[in-house]
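Folding Problem: From Residues to Backbone Shape
Fields: amino acid sequence; protein backbone structure tokens
RECORD BEGINS BELOW THIS LINE
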Amino acid sequence: MAIQIDNRLTATALQPALARMFELSADKIRRLERAWDPRRGTPVSTVRGRYTSRGWTEWTQGFQFGSALLQFDATGERDFLERGRTATIRRMASHVSHFGVHDHGFNNISTYGNLRRLMLEGRIPHNPAELDFYELALKVSGAVQAARWTALPDGGGYIYSFNGPHSLFIDTLRSLRSLALAHQLGHALLTEHDERVSLWLRAVQHANTTARYAVYYGEGRDAYDQRGRTAHESIFNLNDGHYRCPNSQQGYSPFSTWTRGLAWAICGFAEELEFLAGQKPAGKDAIELDRRTAATWLKAATAAADFYLGQTPTCGVPYWDTGAPGLHRLGDYLDRPADPFNAWEPVDSSAAVIAAQGLLRLGNYLISQRQPRPGRRYRQAALTIARTLLDEPYLSTRPQHQGLLLHSVYHRPNGWDHIPRGQKIPNGESSMWGDYHLRELAILLWREAEQKPYPVFFAASGKTGADY
């Protein structure tokens, strides 16, 4: 079996659960802000219900401040707007110019990008100088991210991960938002001799490289080639630029699928398809290029989405890796809801919530492209997952717990996740990315239920949830 999709579920039916979530969310944001000492760095994940730092890269601060902006988006409470705006202005500049990470789409779109979106939507007063400030930050962020580049002999290339120029992470798909938005704002990257590099071209090249090497299609690539499986990391030989092998940093192995990486693929490709659909290519050649690009990304997105749906328990929440070594001890674990408190392998609710947003966006995109049957399937799967996550045991209802979404896993191989006393696996903890993406998914669903504008990272949209 696998996920059991509820084809009758609607965003409107989820409104009471969404309202409850945002009520809990407000208290979580306030409590964390009162308790958190910025000198400790950036909050990453919880230990015994309290947020802690975990040095690897600074990729979660945008989720911290962006969460307050999403709370304002949902409720209109201006104190959350001021919290998010003030923290963005005071604390996020270093993330704009951070050359050492592949995470600009996470940090800067979640802060400067949300503020720009809210202003263009008319949710906050239009202030030309303030808008210019946000857009300048977004332009610089996109160019800095694009400069982290490894060129390949076929004319393509990729934004390389913090592991180095040989390393492509599947996560980076969602950072392409920074390149796409900066391009939309008329910006480009200037390199040696003032060579002007298109940010959108680099985004397309990176996404195409990811689709080619990090996603499998059941076409006999290797002995483990199963359609929709994804590799967390793809390794290249820098001496000649050739692809060498899959790898995994946070998953179990190169030949199994780390489910949060799978979720990043679904969400990343879906958002870039939305962006591409809104472009107006000039000339026959550009139209044909966009058509081929859309076909490549849609093939990757649907393969990853179908694999997710087939490899996830009935409730829609996956275990942290589809090849985790203890899964066989759980018996027919796909035939029943996931068990966060089992003795063998942890679930990852953050993978579920990222995948849910990706499935919703992918479904909406397909419906807009006159493919209603697969589109509705993905949409209903997203709603089914959302219903699971908006209730116990995933929604954090205890005031003492600083997290919002429980049973998130960060880095199982490194042993970074807290294991409660008397238990054998991590559970009961939260992460900044899990909490943020639950709020972001909830905004999508809340606006759909209210027939309000459909939120996209690149512009204010005239579409509403009623259009899908």
Remarks:
- The longest strand covers residues 243-247.
- The mean pLDDT is 96.
- The CA atoms of residues 14 and 387 lie 7 Å apart.
- DSSP finds 14 helices and nine strands in the chain.
